[in-house]
Design brief:
340 residues; single chain; 4-stranded antiparallel sheet; alpha/beta; binds iron/sulfur cluster; disordered C terminus
Length: 340
């Protein structure tokens, strides 16, 4: 069965007074129906710009330069604004990091949910809107929904506001939900509740989820596959279990070494990735991770590594794995695994 979403060679830039910021530089991946995929990377990796390109919600200075974004077989890049408006909210929904700034502080939450229903189905009567609003608030476990639907956003906690946002995102039963750091602003126990809720709703509604985050731990909770981005490119793609058991790309290893684990040796120190992300106005000719990579060689700085298939559902963009890397320049060639 074809993927629900298929992104091919996407390039997105922003025009600034300092030059063209090449935020996404040729990204390809797909999401199957009912699948949950995480996109992980630090700030400036291109993960948020990728999903804003899918939704065609780029700032006025943003441009999709190349590539296609096939959703249900239609190229979203070629759709008119009106056609995109019909798709957003109805077939593709989104939730963002800060529910307070996404909700209108002057309108009761119940009305905000029913307005979302009405925006996509003008034939709904008031009674039907109210009935479905209550169903949605129950679905996301808002206590006493009949009473709470009349409350304003400031009368809700951060976790409850995020539940309202999820209810709004699910109002039209989308086939794809894009969630951009939806748990970052929440404390850990609430974060856990929201992730459990999303997992349950995904099973009930059968939608696909694209989860954007800088936190690999969050991805492990919800996703079956992960895409690691850096410098506007996909560095590694892998089923989630294999990524944790055997990360292949040096950047992925760096990310994993920098997060704590409850099972790890307490004496082991976390290792941050030294250095900072590349200048995307003048992106490097070679591997964008080269200045921070402990394995970098001459070729890494001069030539962009090719994408190498490492197995079923696994790929990496690294000279360590490229079969055609010059032997003299790759001390790992023939030695099997990366020595990290
Ligand atoms: Fe490191 Fe070179 Fe691989 Fe880039 S291509 S991650 S610099 S080894």
């Amino acid at each position: 069965m074809p993927n629900l979403l298929e992104i091919n060679r996407l390039k997105t830039s922003f025009l600034t007074s300092g030059g063209e910021v090449q935020a996404v530089r040729g990204v390809s991946f797909g999401i199957g129906r009912g699948e949950s995929v995480g996109i992980v990377g630090e700030s400036g990796s291109g993960k948020s710009v990728t999903f804003l390109s899918v939704l065609r919600l780029l700032a006025s200075t943003g441009r999709i330069r190349e590539g296609e974004i096939l959703f249900e077989g239609r190229d979203l890049v070629k759709l008119s604004r009106r056609e995109m408006r019909d798709i957003r909210g109805k077939q593709i929904s989104m939730i963002f990091q800060d529910p307070m700034s996404s909700l209108n502080p002057l309108i009761p939450v119940g009305r905000q949910v029913s307005e979302m229903l009405w925006a996509h189905d003008r034939g709904l009567s008031r009674a039907e809107q109210e009935k479905r609003t209550l169903e949605l608030l129950r679905m996301v476990k808002i206590p006493e929904p009949e009473k709470r639907m009349k409350s304003f956003p400031h009368e809700f906690s951060g976790g409850m506001r995020q539940r309202v946002m999820i209810a709004m995102a699910l109002a039209c039963r989308p086939s794809l939900l894009i969630a951009d750091e939806p748990t970052t602003a929440l404390d850990v126990s609430i974060q856990d509740q929201i992730l459990k809720l999303m997992r349950r709703l995904q099973a009930e509604v059968g939608m696909s989820i694209l989860f954007i985050t800088h936190d690999l731990g969050v991805v492990a909770e919800l996703c079956s596959r992960v895409i690691v981005m850096y410098g506007g490119l996909v560095m590694e793609e892998s089923p989630i279990d294999e990524l944790f058991a055997n990360p292949r790309h040096p950047y992925t290893r760096g990310l994993l070494n920098s997060i704590p684990s409850i099972t790890q040796d307490k004496a082991r120190r976390l290792t941050p990735i030294a250095g900072s992300p590349p200048d995307m106005i003048h992106p490097p000719a070679g591997c964008p991770f080269a200045p921070r990579c402990p394995y970098a060689r001459v070729i890494c700085e001069n030539r962009l590594p090719p994408e190498t298939v490492l197995g079923e559902g696994r790929r990496s963009m690294c000279w360590l794995h490229a079969p055609d890397a010059p032997a003299t320049d790759n001390p790992f060639k023939g030695e099997g695994e990366v020595r990290a």
